[in-house]
Amino acid sequence: MSKRKNTFSEEKCPKTPKTECIGEEIQPNWQDFELLSHETNIDPTVAKSVIKLLDEGNTIPFIARYRKNMINNMTPEELRVIKEEYEEIIHLKSKLKSITKTIEKTGQLNQHVRRSLAAVRTIEELEHLYAPFKPESKRSLAERAKSIGLDKPAHNILYNKCQEDLTKYVKSDQEGLKTLKDVQKGVVHFIASIIANDTEVLGHVRELREKHYFIIETKKSSTKKDEKNCSDHKNKNVDESKYKLYFDFKISNTDIKPHQVLAINRAENQKVLTVKISIPDFIFNKFNSFCTCKFAIHPGSEARYLITKEGIEDCYDRLVRPLLVRETRSTLKLMAEKAAMETFSQNLKQLLLVNPIKGKFILGIDPGFKNGCKLALISETGSLHAKATIHPFSRSTSDEAACVLKDILTKYRCELIALGNGTACRETESWLSDLINANTFSPLKVAYTIVSEDGASIYSCSPEAKKEFPDLDTNIISAISLARRVQEPLAELVKVEPQHLGVGMYQHDLRKKHLNEALHEVVSECVSFVGVDLNTASQCLLKEIAGLSEKRALQIIQYREKTGKFTHRKELLKVKGIGEKVFQQCAGFLRVGPINIEEENNFYDSPNTTKLDRTIIHPESYSTARELLKKINLKEVDIGSQHFIEKVDKSKIRENQLSIELKTDEQSIKLILEALSKPLNHDLRSELKIIPLFKKGLTSVDDLKIGTVLSGKVTNVTHFGCFVDIGVKWNGLIHVSKMKGVQLKIGDRVEVEVISIELERKRIGLKFLKISSS
Predict the structure, then answer these.
(1) Which CATH architecture has domain 362-487?
(2) Closest by Cα among 259, 331, 238, 217 to 509
(3) Residues 6+ apart with CB under 8 A from 510
(4) Rounded Cα gap, residues 273 and 654, in angstroms
(5) What's 32-202's CATH class?
């Protein structure tokens, strides 16, 4: 601040407007669809349609399959991202409403504050504006200046309403006004507050943050800590070496990866790292130029020029820079969390959509040392046929264990084994591999697959498991579950809470409520898109269908038990708790038809039955489907037959013409034709070709060498790379830099090259070569 005395004249100044308390609710100066469009980069018309569909209570599976024409053919994954963003907007508006009421109670809700609040677009901006009004907060410097009457001269100087002589505000007996320097400081603080809360200024600050880069710097926390910090429980038992990469790390916010943000945030919380956001000097220069232009600050009046320039600098250093840092970190955290949830969701989807192995007996093995390996053999329908406990790792019992295993496999002609990946997995795998190589099970061609045990023990102790197997040991139940995870993975995995399935990245650092909601939506999408038979589906499956709930699923089963099998989809409306809206959401994902060959001949003799109920065509489109069949000279009774499918396939080239003739949208016609061109009860999973990896042998980790080429299966995907089961003790990692830009998914078969081996750390580095077809 210049020591030059202010020489403003005594010209009479206009009175500062009194605070207005207006009871009307503040309406943002943007509409929901406009902000949603801006934040997600989708067309405003599509954003408006998505909001309308969500507000009407439509589910993501229903929207993604049956309302494609309204959403520009977006995928369920894209819809989930947009739904999350819309929920953030709703949260912002709700918080804006509550904060407005709080400020109104203080009597400070004037037009200026209202305009500023109406312009906010993020929670951080809202908190920034609200900070001075918080009842429990320490009075801001601007409030102190206002309390001693310096708001009036500050307004007049900033907006150049009239000249001010600041010497007349000096009062030697009052704190904050004792000297001219004190007065000038108070005026600067209030000017800084006006600038920082100005709508246009905040908009410019938002643009600066969105269009320019900042630097994130991390350092290892100082070893010279206070005694208090040394006793901090958070820092105990933390393996600091995990964060070695970040001990002297620098990167721009535009280049940082989601997993890096999550790692840095976790290390900071554990007090391993200190984090700093460096903002380039040119950001201040741009901010300064904008404010100078907006408030018409020029050297013509030196006193005004000096004090307003001081106000701009104070505003930037004390208020705007911290806001930029907070918003940058908040944006990065949100980006990282969304990316982690997206990765978790994609992994979960791949896990749920693994192809079922139907029509075969499967042996499940829950491996263990002390309590032995639990065996459970299930039939083609998933029922338990044999169980045993063996101890293959003791010399005295190894031969006996092999005999027991051989007897069970031979008796039921079982050639498939599902081996849990828990304790003693690799030792059991090695034992099995030796038996297979020695032709112990000949003439059977036995193969095994490694199955994730995540959540199996939780399920085996659940009330549902105890109800189905009241007298079985929990480890035997786990073995049954492992076998069923291969036989019908979707039906078995929905019994476990998705966050327990072990396919995520930093899931413990994510907001639990958001994570659970996102994962349950993925489960609902998978179950809905695969579809279930209304007459045979369990409550676990039914409750995951779009529009249904645990209670509604139970009511469907109770209706089924009381009145017998459903004969058509519309019969669902007779179930208590299922009205037109619920029926609309769930009907297309529930199939109704004969459950065996014996029923096939006379099932369609009943009234209201139709083969359309076994397709993905929604009942709301049945009339259109029937008109289409007339157009292409086909009969409804022939749906699913080979000649019917061939003729429908030929009609696909007329999609556009048919949509015009039938006066409907092209997406609906496309869905109907696609559904009619599939066999009845077509399984979506057969198209995805995510097949379990069955092996007949095991490679020793000691045999691995740099340059060895192996085949394997992707078991987990993260932002830093993919983990691959290559048939040795530990999964190898293909770092993202070694993936050749290929986006791999769980279940992908790959060929890889070994590029590093760290036996002490149990780490194997891999380089991706190609996706294997076998």
Answers:
(1) 2-Layer Sandwich (3.30)
(2) 259
(3) 337, 340, 341
(4) 62
(5) mainly alpha
Q: What is the predicted pLDDT for the residue at 505?
A: 64
Question: Residue 507: its pLDDT value, please?
Answer: 67
pLDDT of residue 773: 64
Q: Which residues make beta-bridge pairs with 718?
A: 721
Rounded CA separation 188/176 (Å): 12
**Which runs of consecutive H residues, i.e. helices, occur in 248-358?**
258-269, 281-294, 302-315, 321-352
Structural fold of domain 211-350:
Tex N-terminal region-like (1.10.3500)
Task: Check residue 223 and give its pLDDT.
Answer: 59
Q: Structure tokens of 406?
A: 């051989």
Q: Give me 706's structure tokens.
A: 């740099």
* Spatial distance between the Cα atoms of 407 and 399, rounded to a whole number of angstroms: 12
Say if domain 701-771 classifies as CATH 2.60.40.1930: no
Structure tokens at 563: 């009145």
| DSSP per-residue letters across 105-155 | HTT---HHHHHHHHT--SHHHHHHHHGGG-TTSPPPHHHHHHHTT-HHHHH
Answer yes or no: are the C-beta atoms of 730 and 724 closer than 8 Å.
Answer: no
Q: In what order do the strands lie in the sheet with 215-220?
A: 248-252, 215-220, 273-278
In Å, the largest CA–CA distance within the chain is: 110
Can you give the pLDDT at residue 605? 83
Q: Enumerate residue ranges in the chain where pLDDT < 50.
A: 1-22, 224-234
Give me the pLDDT at residue 456, please: 86
Q: What is the pTM of this model?
A: 0.80
Q: How many residues does the chain have?
A: 774
Starting at the edge strand found earlier in the chain, the sheet holding 373-378 runs 384-390, 373-378, 362-366, 416-420, 447-451
Please identify which residue in the block is written with the tokens 């898109």. Answer: 529
Q: What gap in Å lies between CA 596 and CA 345, rounded to an integer?
A: 35
Nearest CA among 453, 454, 474, 452 for reference residue 463: 474
pLDDT at position 230 is 46
Three-state DSSP state, 447: strand
